[in-house]
Amino acid sequence: MARILTITLNPALDLSVETPPLTLGEVNRTGHTLIEPAGKGINVARVLARLGHSVTVAGLLGDANPGPFERLFEAEGLEDRFVRVPGRNRINIKIAEAGGRVTDLNGPGFRAPETALQSLEDRLESLLPECDVVVIGGSLPDGFLPSGVAELVQQASEAGKPVWLDTSGEGLKAGIEAGPFAIKPNTDELAGWAGLPINDVAAVETTVARLRTHGVSHVVVSMGADGVLWSSPSGLLRSRVPPVSLVSTVGAGDTLLAGMLHGVLGGERDEAVLRYATALSAECVQHIGVGDPEAPDFPSLLQQTRVQPWPGQNNTGEIRL
Ligand SMILES: Nc1ncnc2c1ncn2[C@@H]1O[C@H](COP(=O)(O)OP(=O)(O)OP(=O)(O)O)[C@@H](O)[C@H]1O
Ligand SMILES: O=P(O)(O)OC[C@@]1(O)O[C@H](CO)[C@@H](O)[C@@H]1O
Question: Which GO terms describe its biological process (predicted)?
């Protein structure tokens, strides 16, 4: 099993609420609610630890409310090497309405001190030799410049560690310039990078080709219910998800990334890697929280997940955006 380092620059407590369709401006009575420590790198770490990997979590953690995070790291066997910074970790609200509509209300979080990047780089000096791969996930807190993402990507790459990057906006743009090994944008994030709308798989393909010329070896585009397009040096593969009963898509992208890493690090064939990761992300959307490889219906989801080279036969290319 591999040793993986995940970096989350702006962790969050996710307050997830399952509710009947909302009536804005009225009192709404909710169903199941849950508050859990999260943020993209932490979510990826949880899935990888469940898959048996040795995972270290790092990044910036607000020192005013670290307790729930520290308890989660302990419970899930994640080695905690977060740099503590002054301030509160944000609370992100996830409203999952019956019918499958999910609304994210993501807060800004603490303000990163000027010393944050240097402290992180110092921490990475000791952590990088101990890991096989680095994941950088999520948005940047105020005060943390996009160029800081590029510096982290560069530091890890120079240490010979492949970087899997999953961020958005200016952080994604800057990070791509530093040449990560892999990125996992969703279609909105990809469109943001390209500065163009992306309405079908052909547009995804064109944009991915541009990314390859920027030196990114692996581009894993998550397309929601339309599955995944994976561009690698071996070519393009497209996966299609099995029919599932949708509860919340929060964490599905993180689960997908973790599943991809699990397969790639395990030396699986590309088709098997993508099938496994896609099926695990489909498992994730059936409930609140990250995907569970031990779920009783996972073998059946895996069996129903389709993977084929892209462009293949009978591809309509539509994305239901
Ligand atoms: N409605 C759905 N039915 C089945 N699988 C889904 C559905 N929505 C998402 N998935 C699976 O989860 C993957 C990731 O979803 P999505 O594209 O929404 O990621 P994301 O926006 O990065 O998510 P997040 O940032 O919340 O983790 C998809 O590529 C797909 O495999
Ligand atoms: O605001 P960011 O950092 O872009 O995204 C944060 C977040 O939405 O991503 C995870 C799901 O991928 C959630 O756990 C978390 O709240």
Answer: carbohydrate catabolic process; small molecule metabolic process
